[in-house]
Amino acid sequence: MADLHAYIEVAFSDRPRQVIPISVLPFLIGRGSENGNHLALDDLRVSRRCMAICAVPEGLRLEDRGQAGGILVNRSQITGATILSDGDRICLGGDEGCQFVFRSASHPMRRRDDGIAVLKSMSGARPGDSHHELNRLSVLLEATSLLHSQLPLDSIFATMLDHAISLTRADRAMLLEPDGAGTLQVKVARGREQKSLEPEAMNPSRTVLGQAIEQRSAVINEDILLADSNVQTAHSVVLQFLRSAAVIPLYNVMHDESAEGRGAGHAQEKSELLGAVYLDSKRASAFSTLDRQILDALAAQAASILANARLMQRERERQRLEQELSIARQIQQALVPQGLQDYPHLAITGSHRPCNEVGGDYFDVFPLPDGRTAFLIADIAGKGLGAALLTTMLQGALSVLTFGADPVKLFEYLNRFLCDRADVDRYATMFFGLVSPDGMLEFVRAGHPSPLLMRRGQVSELYQEGSFPIGLIDEASYEASRIQLEPEDTLLLFTDGVTEAEDKNRNLFEVERLIDAFAQHYGCSLDVLKAGILNTVEKFTEDAEQSDDITLLAVRYRKPGSATIVTGENSVSKAQSL
């Protein structure tokens, strides 16, 4: 590797700072290591081929390799390349929260000899100091280099605590992390001679811990008998005969320079408590100034490792959730009818577009033993996995209709079932219809928007009366209504995600526009009608982000004695006279 006196600080606002030596030239930076990047970042704001640092006679030159939005150096857009100077701030695509800082000095931990010199300067040690002090610095250097290894975190922290005990002559060392309630709990505990201690058996002084967290800085009691009365009389101190204790809180410090109007050099620091390093002893132990500096250095390294571990944990959790959502979406899409069945007296087509991975809308079509065809549409309050789970439950419950169950009694049962389980905190609007071969439509409504009926080119609502959703009111009752359909009558069922679709100015699509779009497709096949309505909605929204699922179901009654060929989502349906 080249002996370069330069390094890059990764100064993103949403992750801990990293210091990366520039160990080879050209030094490539981008997303993903598969593109040959020496500094590979898992961040969608960083292009796969982002930038390169190259050697030229004038020094080190930054080259834009294709970063989306370009590269700014000290807030000025570069054209192709620019020579770097110490302290230059490199911003990607104008995003102030996505920066690098170029340093022309050596990285503090680049080599062992350099590390000792830096730590001696930091601690105030002079060239004539004892060999013992240099040995302690060597121990620290070994500890900090181990923190950047690929060993399991518990092993890394155990070794770090062993070094801390060796450096400070403490009896015990512990690493604590906050639990879900924010209380610090022992994660790793070590004793003398690299002995592993059970974290559950540890009882660190909560008084000393509380002082360190309250002061947001290290608290070192060289002799507890000389400390304030609260520490001396603390329960854990008395029971364990403790004479000295040290606590250094670990914080993840992030720099926020994205606030509007904030000039250069006015970065605001935000900190998050990651945990604490705790040491104690039953002997009066003098934690020297050198120890304090060493512990601060160890704590900084430990905080960096903890912060990165949390980021990795959150990323794994995000990937796990995305995988679960993808599976849930596949299951839900499989439950929605695909390639709707051909019925002698009905032509049917539908579309379901969830706004998230999974949605709360649902429609279904199925035949009954008596020759009638059932169809329904439902909209679950809310979105996401909760709504999807309730959708699946409703589909299972409604399947009993295929055995001739009374739809009114089933609606009343479902209403009681959900109301009796208030913790579910969900309700559903539904419309259920039954069409017989002679065109008699029997339907039950539960708070759902009225379907639109197109008869001889005229569009009207099927009903005006209101009703209660399922699962909202205990006393709700439901009834069946009937209407005689005429040949070529077309019903358009929809969820409120259609009529409440928004444009960029937050205007709603509303029922009137849906009626107009419906009427304009009189005489068209159902698939052409469906595509035309969806296209009208898309043009209205102009790609504005939507907050609800969009679901349509179109049903057309045919004369007995005619056959309807009904095809899938992207095909055309047609009637063929027998």
Structural write-up:
It is a single chain. The chain is elongated and about 95 Å long. The chain has twelve helices and 29 strands. Helix 2 (131-146) runs antiparallel to helix 3 and helix 3 (153-168) packs antiparallel against helix 7. A hairpin with a 5-residue loop joins strand 12 and strand 13 (184-191). The chain folds into three domains: 7-103, Sandwich (Tumour Suppressor Smad4), CATH 2.60.200.20; 112-257 and 268-318, 2-Layer Sandwich (Beta-Lactamase), CATH 3.30.450; 336-577, Phosphatase 2c, domain 1 (4-Layer Sandwich). It is of the alpha+beta class and 578 residues long.
Q: Notable features of this structure?
A:
578 residues; alpha+beta; Tumour Suppressor Smad4; Beta-Lactamase; Phosphatase 2c, domain 1; six-stranded antiparallel beta sheet; 29 strands; elongated; disordered C terminus
List the helices and strands and how they pair.
Blueprint: E1 7-10, E2 18-21, E3 27-30, E4 39-40, E5 51-56, E6 59-64, E7 71-73, E8 76-77, E9 81-83, E10 89-92, E11 95-103, H1 112-123, H2 131-146, H3 153-168, E12 172-178, E13 184-191, E14 195-197, H4 206-215, E15 219-221, H5 229-232, H6 235-240, E16 244-256, E17 268-281, H7 289-335, E18 346-353, E19 361-367, E20 373-380, H8 384-398, H9 407-419, E21 428-435, E22 440-446, E23 452-455, E24 458-461, E25 480-484, E26 490-494, H10 496-499, H11 510-519, H12 526-541, E27 550-557, E28 562-565, E29 574-577
Parallel strand pairs: 3-4
Antiparallel strand pairs: 1-2, 1-11, 3-5, 5-6, 6-9, 7-8, 7-10, 10-11, 12-13, 12-17, 13-14, 15-16, 16-17, 18-27, 19-20, 20-21, 21-22, 22-25, 23-24, 23-26, 26-27, 28-29
Helix pairs in contact: 1-2, 2-3, 2-7, 3-7, 7-8
